[in-house]
Design brief:
By secondary structure, this protein is of the alpha/beta class. It has eleven helices and eight strands. Pfam families: Lipase_GDSL.
Length: 359
């Protein structure tokens, strides 16, 4: 277990660096799925971390406002921890609305812009407090509750046509490692994280949100920050075993909640298997060669002390970047490219249509 923890510890810097402050525009909505089922979402509310955040962290706190972040969308650094769009944007497109405005920008957005929902996610955060001094998920949900109580932007009646995304991508586990807690406590801590996620899901559902999507944990052992040890050739299965424990517990929680409500309110977005499917196929579909080396990131520091976007005191770049981000699944050491997220949601499309769009 000690060796496993040492390997898992390498994730710390990669997740903690997930502080992002993003562009407020997202993928344009598409109505293509609405005729299939009775549920027509009009709003998306988002809670979580860097896989979901589209602009809640101040520019001064995030190097994702520096080149080469954002080079695909919107064409310049804009805060998302990617070369372009992230998970929130693709889910919004799927349900047929614009990507929701970040909470940070709510006072600067017109009423029309707010009608698509709101994104409360902050990169680097978790269900508990992490190394990032930013609102954890409980506080994010508190923000949402205050808006509902105020009633000047949203009311509970608005939520009957809404979807929530609740992203938990691993920052709690990075913090566990940083605190040098005993390795024997790790399985118990995973249960604590999932138990708190259950509390969060119950709170959101109690407000009246119609559908709540919670992603499974992605295969952390396949992140470039880990696979660099094998020259980006192999995932670390010991780390993925811990991920499977998290995901199995999450699956049990969602099944229990749906049984209690007698509805399919809660939906798991199976990121774990979607990521692995893309890795295996080198793209969303069998036979694709879009991602020739799917575990290798597009943007990488020239040595272990540098990360994507790093420059020295003279402004000299200390990273290398691939010729075309569309040929890479991963953008940096822990986050997918826009094309990576597109491929993941392509894999998820069938299950999303069946579970998210039905009344």
């Amino acid at each position: 277990m000690d060796s496993l923890i040492k390997l898992f510890a390498s994730l710390l810097l990669f997740f903690f660096s997930s502080l992002l402050f993003g562009e407020t525009n997202g993928v344009e909505g598409s109505k293509q799925n609405h005729h299939l089922y009775g549920f027509r979402p009009t709003k998306l509310f988002v809670f979580g971390d860097s896989y979901a955040d589209t602009g809640n962290i101040k520019k001064s706190l995030s190097y994702t406002w520096k080149f080469p972040y954002g080079i695909t969308f919107p064409g310049k650094p804009a805060g998302r921890f990617s070369d372009g769009r992230v998970a929130t944007d693709f889910l919004a497109k799927f349900v047929g609305i614009k990507s929701p405005i970040p909470y940070f920008w709510k006072d600067y957005a017109g009423k029309k812009r707010l009608q698509h929902g709101m994104n409360f996610a902050y990169g680097g955060t978790g269900v508990f407090n992490t190394l990032a001094p930013l609102p954890n998920m409980t506080t994010q949900i508190d923000f949402f509750q205050k808006l509902l109580i105020a009633g000047d932007i949203y009311s509970t009646s608005d939520l009957t046509s809404s979807v929530a995304l609740v992203s938990v991508a691993g920052n709690d586990y990075s913090t566990f490692i940083a605190q040098n807690r005993p390795a024997a406590e790790f399985p118990g801590f995973i249960k604590q994280v999932v138990d708190q996620t259950e509390v969060n899901l119950r709170r959101i559902q109690a407000f009246g949100v119609k559908k709540i999507a919670v992603p499974s944990l992605q295969p952390l052992g396949c992140l470039p920050g880990v696979t660099v040890a094998s020259s980006f050739q192999r995932c670390n299965e010991s780390q993925n075993a811990l991920v499977k424990l998290h995901n199995n517990l999450l699956q049990q929680v969602v099944a229990k909640l749906n049984n209690e409500t007698k509805q399919s309110t809660f939906i798991i977005l199976d990121l774990y298997n979607a990521f692995l499917t893309v890795f295996k196929n080198k793209g969303a579909n069998p036979g694709s060669t879009r991602f020739e080396s799917p575990l290798k990131p597009c943007c990488l520091g020239v040595s272990s002390e540098y990360s994507c976007g790093s420059v020295d005191a003279k402004g000299v770049k200390k990273y290398v970047i691939c010729d075309d981000p569309k040929t890479a699944f991963f953008w940096d050491r822990s986050h997918p490219t826009e094309e990576g997220w597109r491929s993941v949601y392509s894999v998820l499309r069938k299950s999303l249509t069946a579970s998210l769009m039905k009344a």
